[in-house]
Amino acid sequence: MMLQIPEVLTKVQVAECLAILDAALWVDGNLTSGFQAALAKQNQQLPQTGEAARTVGAILLAALERNPLFVSAALPRTILSPMFNRYGEGMGFGDHIDNAVRRDPVTGQTLRTDLSATLFLSEPEDYDGGELVVDDLYGSHAVKLSAGDLILYPASSLHHVTPVTRGTRTASFFWIQSLVREDARRSLLLDMDVAIQRLSGTVGAADPSILALTGTYHNLLRQWAEV
């Protein structure tokens, strides 16, 4: 499942975050890479435990907690402290698959990476190139979203960032351990939740069909959730 989640951050929040990030000290992105990633990666990152990353990360995490589509799609158990990268002209990131397990240097927690997320902080017209390209069973999907929008996709996906040829691409990226490990099950639960919300607006939340569907949703979640 690939899912675009619009307006996770408002334009005012994006501007606030960029002001903090632009004033921070960026480092070579390969300081945080494993051996294989380092062969393909050309970008800059913020130290994850630094003040700027933690301040902007807190803004982003608070926004995610308030976003019903993100919560419904990801069913988050643990969210890795957000990280931030920047691609200038000539920078990109070749094909790679994210690590299956990561340790959060901020919280000390270890999590299984079920889902990857990228939140765009630069407007698409401010740079050329820099598309996030994700491969799945249906082909390759190039993603370049408005500032404040987020793309959510399985962390097991092969993906890359095309080279930036003009301007600068700034984004946040992080991983989620979901309550439901399997992507197909998460997709089914999301479809059911969306259907419940739509039908509730038509026939009312107390309608017997809504109560039955809601019961089925929660019974499946009870069976599949890992807590």
From TrEMBL:
Binding locations of Fe cation: 96, 98, 159
Domain Fe2OG dioxygenase per the UniProt entry, residue ranges: 78-178
Cofactor: Fe(2+); L-ascorbate
Pfam family, one: PKHD_C
Binding site for 2-oxoglutarate: 169
Domain of life: Bacteria
InterPro entries per UniProt: Oxoglu/Fe-dep_dioxygenase_dom (IPR005123), PKHD_C (IPR041097), PKHD_hydroxylase (IPR023550), Pro_4_hyd_alph (IPR006620), Pro_4_hyd_alph_FE2OG_OXY (IPR044862)
CC cofactor note: Binds 1 Fe(2+) ion per subunit.
Signal peptide range in chain numbering: none
Entry's Gene Ontology BP terms: DNA damage response; intracellular iron ion homeostasis
Keyword vocabulary terms for this entry: Dioxygenase, Iron, Metal-binding, Oxidoreductase, Vitamin C
PANTHER family: PKHD-TYPE HYDROXYLASE YBIX
Name of the protein described by the UniProt record: Fe(II)-dependent oxygenase
Originating organism: Caulobacter henricii
